[in-house]
Amino acid sequence: MNETDIPPQSDPQNAAKPPAPWRQLTVIGFTFWLNYLAYGLIIPLIPTMMAYYLAEYSIPSVLMGGVAATIYGLSQVFLGPVWGAFSDHKGRKPILLWSLWIQLAAQILWIFSDTIWLFLLVRAFTGITSGNMSITSAAISDSTSRHHRMLGMNVLAMGFALGSTLSPLIGGLLVKVNPLDYVPYLRDYGVNPFSFVAFGSMMFCVLNLWMVRFLFRESHPREARTQVLDVSVKTILGRLHRVPEKAMNQLNFVFFIFVFAYAAVQFNLSFLALNRYDWTPSKTSLLYAASGVFQLISQSFILPRLSKYMDERQCSFIGFVLAALGVAIMASPLPSYGLVTGLIFLATGAGLVFPALSSLASLYAPHDRQGEYLGLFRARAAMGSGFGPIALGSVFAFTGPIVAFGAFSVLYLFAFSLARRLPEPKG
């Protein structure tokens, strides 16, 4: 295959394939959301958690918070494509179940994590298992036609937005329950003030296992599965660097830049709210919830209407510009309404970019390797999630919020300029 070519979907019936039943799409969306909870519950709590874990160390909390996010993100980088490749070969459902069992073990360990080092180990295992999000993306691709693909991927984006809305609120409520206030001797077993948050995350994981086991239907039939499984370190590293399809390489880089900037801003938003406005974790949780609400509005009302007149690329263009404007407003030294206004623009833009680029990824990828290629696509996002928070956190710590957030607003415009060069998908 010529490197400049975009492979058409190898399934000749793809265009005639009906959209997935809403029950299956709903199950996939909730599976994605429950996966996100493992990450999202603690986002508004990070400053408080770092202060607790680092009480005996002279390490800046904003820097170590970035390290925790980096470990989580980089753990997904290498395992995301592996989960996807296994699901191409063995089917979506069994591999998704295996990853969730490992995630459950990680959540149980989190309950007893009373040191920063044990907590970082838990973040690594949680990141490894969250790489299974590539499987849910592939399941959407299995079940939707070319013309319904962006709306199908929008289900995953809505699951992400629902997580952004509810998980910080849930985390903010759960952290108010300190098990040590009721059973002090549990401290000897590693139970800490955040163990009830970990318990809540564990219960969501149990619910996710039940949903996948009894409600999730296998979407990847045996006859469509890959015959050869190659998940060697050399192969995965090579494909993380580049794949034969030039358009996919371009898209992966655009997605990396966008998620790098988005994850950085989202993660450090709690530090901005604390340092500039002296907001409590509970108040910050409401800020993250508002972000999720506006993402849901963008995905539920704006994107479906735009998709009637625009393709994936054009929808993403609007999203990039809105996101850049939002972060620029957040960088400015305005009263707290400036933070909220900027967040509304950022959330609305992200609500357009995520499903649009995810749809493009599934259309650029070969039909029989959707899991692997979407895993590689999400691995680039995981790299962005891993490096973004610590990069912005470091700039924030040494220069302050105006320079840090202002510089990252420019990154969205850079991603926009790159996205304009993406070719239209074939097939």
TrEMBL record:
Transmembrane ranges, per UniProt, are: 33-55, 61-83, 95-112, 151-174, 194-216, 251-274, 286-303, 315-334, 340-365
Could you tell me which residue ranges the Major facilitator superfamily (MFS) profile domain spans?
Answer: 24-427
Keywords attached to this Swiss-Prot or TrEMBL record, sorted alphabetically, are:
Membrane, Transmembrane, Transmembrane helix, Transport
Give the way it sits in the membrane.
Multi-pass membrane protein
InterPro entries given in the database record = MFS, MFS_dom, MFS_trans_sf, Tet-R_TetA/multi-R_MdtG-like
- Example GO molecular function term? transmembrane transporter activity
Q: What is its main location?
A: membrane
Single GO cellular component term: membrane
> For this UniProt entry, which residues form the secretion signal?
none
Instruction: Please name the source species.
Output: Pelagicoccus albus
Gene3D superfamilies according to UniProt: MFS general substrate transporter like domains
Where would one find coiled-coil regions in this protein? none
User: Which protein are we looking at?
Assistant: MFS transporter
Q: Cellular location of this protein?
A: Membrane
